[in-house]
Write a structure and sequence with these properties.
- The model has no long low-confidence stretch (mean pLDDT 87).
- The protein has a 3-stranded parallel beta sheet with strand order 1-3-5.
- The chain contains 4 helices and 6 strands; from the N terminus they run ααββαβββαβ.
- The chain has a domain of 46 residues.
- The chain is an alpha/beta fold.
Amino acid sequence: MFEGDSMRLERLVAPAGRRKRRKRVGRGIGSGHGKTSGRGIKGQKARGHVRPGFEGGQTPLTRRMRKLRGVSKTAMPVGPFRKEYAIVNVGRLDMFEPEAMVTPQMLLENRVIRAMKDGLRVLGNGDITKPLDVHAHHFSASAAKKIEAAGGKVTVLPVRGAMK
């Protein structure tokens, strides 16, 4: 591996191309970056600093947008404490065998939902014809009514991370 006694910090060398030399501007015509130092001729960018967001005298985007005052749902669409649920419609549950117990893990395995997120929410879109025992963290009123009308059973699971 290494010649001598052991690996030493002073022997470490950066790989080729890793360290780039800095551009030295204003060092004469022969350097290739003399006279205007790579800034071109005249203009605002040649003379000094152009602040970020400057749009050439046009009213900048930050000034054209409205001011957000206070905290509202439009100002903060995904708040730090908001729960985000995986959603499945009642119509998608009809693929399971009658009397089957449908759990969030089963839905993940059968790729009905892609990720668990903070829980599973069953919504009432579609029709169900088979009696199923459905376990989820939340049911809409129409979804629970359709499952029970088909002879099934609704079981509400505790939401993960819920404060009591």
